[in-house]
Design brief:
345 residues; mainly alpha; Tetracycline Repressor, domain 2; UbiA_prenyltransferase; membrane; UbiA prenyltransferase
């Protein structure tokens, strides 16, 4: 009898351990998906603005500093910013899912997300979001100049407000585009403060230094900002067309609804051409291979925009996927062009 009780006790202990391990695995998986760490889009859409900004800043400095020093600095800042921005984005998207949990449960494309699917509780999602914010703050402090955290504080405020825009305005995608493009001034300040430290003692003095950077460099930073804002705007508008029917039923707003299926391509096509023009201008003033860097996105985007059928979710999904591919190609070709310029300088 004693031996039988011992076996039952061991079996119960193993069962409890297996159940606990299953719950931990399910929660970890849910947190991973809350931060969109399971999708290629999640990794690309927020980090490429930082990559392009770092490359363009360092390309502009070639000739004023040793080329190898610039390449090493660009590589280090790219890696640091990518790590910080991924963590920042993970916290922000978890917050977005928390606010959208009821809507996501009513939309076919999003009902499998962790909160509506019941893979994590609301309190668990809030706990994860708070944890990710803490990790992000620590990473920014350890890896980047203090001024970068100050500029990124504005990004946190945009992230806080962004999920609510769809309840009040058709221009919610413009808010999302501003959020993604805000990575550009964050990355630019990180680059400037690495080469030109402020040595300011107080937060007020650091803000003054950031303001002086904005006043001096805005003509260079603004075109890079517009590259990301325009791309994000037409990409998010088309991406949102996959849910237009559900959004109308739920009473939420978007530029996808505002523009409509027929007017959408007519409105977005000029934005695509402006986007391509800004890429050409930014790479030209940085001394990179502007014609070559503009060629691939020009061909792909012009082909896709004329083939786009916004009433067809599959067509919208294909356009969104090709847009992510373009961002990856741009990041790689910008880096190759920068390395080439550094080698021949």
């Amino acid at each position: 009898m004693l031996r039988s009780a011992t076996r039952r006790g061991a079996s119960d202990a193993q069962s409890s351990l297996a159940s606990f391990s299953t719950r931990i695995g399910k929660t970890a998986s849910a947190c991973f998906r809350l931060g969109r760490f399971h999708t290629l889009m999640g990794y690309v859409i927020f980090t490429t603005p930082a990559v392009l900004t770092v490359v363009l800043y360092h390309a502009c400095r070639i000739g004023s500093a040793p080329s190898m020093e610039l390449v090493q600095s660009a590589a280090r800042l790219t890696l640091s910013l990518v790590v910080c921005i991924l963590s920042y984005r993970g916290a922000g998207l978890a917050w977005d899912d928390i606010i959208d949990r009821d809507i996501d449960g009513s939309v076919a494309r999003t009902k499998s997300r962790p909160l509506p699917a019941g893979d994590i509780s609301l309190s668990g999602a809030l706990l994860y979001c708070g944890f990710q914010i803490s990790v992000t703050s620590l990473l920014f402090q350890r890896l980047l100049p203090m001024e970068t955290s100050l500029v990124n504080a504005i990004g946190w405020m945009i992230f806080l407000v962004y999920p609510f825009l769809k309840f009040f305005t058709y221009w919610a995608q413009a808010g999302g585009s501003l959020l993604m493009a805000w990575v550009v001034p964050v990355a630019w300040v990180a680059c400037v403060c690495t080469f030109e430290p402020s040595n300011a003692a107080t937060v007020a003095d650091k803000w003054s230094y950031v303001a002086s950077i904005a006043a001096r460099d805005w003509m260079i930073v603004l075109p890079i900002f517009m590259i990301e804002f325009l791309f994000s705007f037409f990409h998010e508008t088309v991406y949102g067309c996959q849910d237009t029917g559900d959004d109308i039923k739920l009473g939420v707003y978007s530029t996808s609804i505002l523009f409509g299926y027929k007017r959408g391509p007519q409105i977005l096509t000029p934005l695509v051409f402006i986007y391509l023009g800004v890429i050409f201008y930014s790479t030209l003033i940085a001394g990179l291979h502007a014609h070559l860097l503009s060629l691939i996105p020009s061909y792909v985007l012009i082909t896709e925009i004329y083939a786009l059928r916004m009433e067809d979710p599959r067509s919208c999904g294909r356009f969104a996927k090709r847009g992510i591919e373009i961002k990856i190609i741009l990041s790689l070709t910008f880096w190759v062009s920068f390395l080439w310029k550094a080698c021949v300088a």
